[in-house]
Amino acid sequence: MKLSLPLSIVAAAVASVNSHYTFPNLINNGAMSAEWQYVRITENHWSSGPITDVKSNAIRCYELDSSAAGATQIATVTAGSTVGFKASNTMGHPGYFSAYMSPANPANSNSAGTGKTWFKIWEWAPRWTASTGLIFDSINIDRFNFTIPKNVPNGQYLLRGEQIALHLSGSTNGAQFYVGCAQINVVGGGSGSPGPTVSFPGAYSATDPGILLNIYALPSGYSGYKSPGPAVWRG
C-alpha cells in the first residue's frame, strides 16, 4: 500500500505498542514456516519493542539469549529463489527495509555473524520527488519478500531481515530497528564474491542521514533518502 508523507503523519500519530512487531516466520519460495522455526527467537518476542541503539549487540539479530541459535532449525534455500519474513503484526510505521546475509559455519553457532561478514542483498527505500516529498510504499504490510542472489556461494548463512521505522527518527536514537535472523543453508548457488561486508554493530551510525531524519520536516536542499549501510550486492 502506498502512502505519501502527509498520510504517514496520521499513521505515526496513532502509533502505539500495538503497532510494534517481530519477524518470527521465514517465507521460503512461498511456503511459510512456523513461528521461530528457522528464525532465532528474539528478545522482544513478547513485547515486540524495537532496538534504538545502533551500537548495541542487539542490532545484529536481537536474540533472546545464548540458547536461541541452537534451538533454531536451519532451512534449505535455493539461490535465486524468493524468500522473506512475515511480521507478527501489520507494519504501520513508515520506514526503510533491507536484508543481509552472513556466512555461518554452522548457522546455529553463537559466533555466526559476529565479525565483518555481513553483505546487503536487498533494500526497499522510500521514494522522493520535489513535488510529493517522501513516499513510503512499504507501509501497512505484514511481510516483505526478496531474492537470494543466484551467484551466492553454497553453504550456511544467517539471513537478516530489518525494518528501520522512521516515524520518530527526527532525534538521535529515535529511529526504531526491527530485526530477525533466519538460519539457512543455500544450495544451487554460484561462485560470486559478496561484498562489501560490514559488521553489526558497526554498519550504522546514529547520525547517518537515513537514520537521523525528521521525515515530517525535511532539511533544506533534501534530494532523496540515503540508505544506511553498504551498497546492495546483486550477485
Automatic annotation (TrEMBL):
<feature type="signal peptide">
    <location>
        <begin position="1"/>
        <end position="19"/>
    </location>
</feature>
<keyword id="KW-0503">Monooxygenase</keyword>
<comment type="similarity">
    <text>Belongs to the polysaccharide monooxygenase AA9 family.</text>
</comment>
<keyword id="KW-0479">Metal-binding</keyword>
<dbReference type="GO" id="GO:0046872">
    <property type="term" value="F:metal ion binding"/>
</dbReference>
<dbReference type="GO" id="GO:0030245">
    <property type="term" value="P:cellulose catabolic process"/>
</dbReference>
<keyword id="KW-0732">Signal</keyword>
<dbReference type="Pfam" id="PF03443">
    <property type="entry name" value="AA9"/>
</dbReference>
<keyword id="KW-0136">Cellulose degradation</keyword>
<protein>
    <recommendedName>
        <fullName>lytic cellulose monooxygenase (C4-dehydrogenating)</fullName>
        <ecNumber>1.14.99.56</ecNumber>
    </recommendedName>
</protein>
<dbReference type="InterPro" id="IPR005103">
    <property type="entry name" value="AA9_LPMO"/>
</dbReference>
<dbReference type="GO" id="GO:0005576">
    <property type="term" value="C:extracellular region"/>
</dbReference>
<keyword id="KW-1015">Disulfide bond</keyword>
<dbReference type="InterPro" id="IPR049892">
    <property type="entry name" value="AA9"/>
</dbReference>
<keyword id="KW-0964">Secreted</keyword>
<keyword id="KW-0624">Polysaccharide degradation</keyword>
<keyword id="KW-0186">Copper</keyword>
<keyword id="KW-0560">Oxidoreductase</keyword>
<keyword id="KW-0119">Carbohydrate metabolism</keyword>
<feature type="domain" description="Auxiliary Activity family 9 catalytic">
    <location>
        <begin position="20"/>
        <end position="217"/>
    </location>
</feature>
<dbReference type="GO" id="GO:0004497">
    <property type="term" value="F:monooxygenase activity"/>
</dbReference>
